[in-house]
Amino acid sequence: MRATLRQAARATFHLVVSAAMAFGSYIFITVLLITAILTVTVVGAFMLPETVLLIRRIAGAKRRTAGAWTGRKIPEAYQPLTGTVRERVRTAVLDPSTLTDFRWMIAYYAYGALPVLMLPLWPLGLVVDGVWCGLLRRQALVLPLISRLADLDAHWSTVLLKPSPKAQLAVRVEELVQTRAGAIAAHGAELRRIERDLHDGTQARLVSLSMRIGLAKRAYDRDPAAARRMLDEAQTLAEEALTDLRHVVRAIHPPILTDRGLVGAVRALAASSALGVTVTVDGLTDGHDGPRAPAAVEAAAYFVIAESLTNAAKYSGADRAEVHLARVRTGLRVRVRDEGRGGADEAGGSGLLGMRRRVAALDGGVTVTSPVGGPTVIEVELPCVW
Predict the structure, then answer these.
(1) Which residues are registered as beta bridge partners of 328?
(2) Among 10-14, 38-42, 119-123, 152-156, which is the least confidently predicted range?
(3) Are 32 and 51 in contact (CB under 8 A)?
(4) Is the full-model pTM beyond 0.85?
(5) Rounded to an integer, what is the distance from CA 162 to the centroid of its chain?
(6) For residue 336, what are the β-bridge partners?
(7) How do residues 329-342 score in pLDDT, each as one tens digit?
(8) CA 237 to CA 258: how far, in whole Å?
(9) Which among 174, 156, 39, 178 is positioned nearest to 95, based on CA atoms?
């Protein structure tokens, strides 16, 4: 009986909130009528976007309450109302979610009265279930109906407020446009970095190498010792230029990923880090044994881990870090944690923005948790097919 009362009380709270929202929507009819009349007369067209925004807030509140009851979040798929008045009006009218919200509000005028049915159930349930359940130890009959009403309210709200496929497609296209722009920006930044590294490092060493060889050729007949010294310097410059080229190649796609796979590459990266790094693996194997993620996914994961460990070594003040790699059903999951001072900021030039862009280009997601005082946890989800 006690559990039945708790569940009925929880359902009652949900229905009371729904009743308050329904009452507000009844009052909102006046605003809708004024907006419709003024929009038809063109005089008050500027009110349409504001009214749509208000409807979105009401629908959003209902999505949250229904999601809290069912435990399943109801997604939103709205187009932003920005620009001039004409653009805002056009977006408000053409957005498929506007029709979805309006349809829900009309239906809510009817099923928003469900909480009224709850009122007689409480006194009846306390009497009937008090005897039937409390004394006779049978299953409650009346009070569970309150939960049924809450289930019905949440179910209808979920069905009516769920974005249409057209709205979801529009939001998806907008996301792809943004990730494409981020990928292009990241690609451009990478090309500029490669150009800068080649120009400032390798090219300068090769020019100096050419000059040393030329001077050695001139001095070879009259001063063989000086020519030999210049050739030794040229050999040193050639080795340094080769090292620079290897660094550039590794930054594009580390060869160790091809040779040893992601797990082996991450273990090598951890071994060379200034921190004491612990690597744990779930569902992945070293080398070429077992399934591997696509090369682009492995490269992105390697970049995230390398950047995270570099940031931790430079800024966190920690002496240890943890790296976790996991194969999941939808792709690859990466988590890097350090016990440093925290407070990581994307605007602070710590490489988080570049990391986010690289992951977004593969349709992945990045979650950064870094409260002041630590710890800092960077979690990355990279979708792929195994």
Answers:
(1) 331
(2) 38-42
(3) yes
(4) no
(5) 21
(6) 323, 378
(7) 889 999 999 988 88
(8) 29
(9) 174
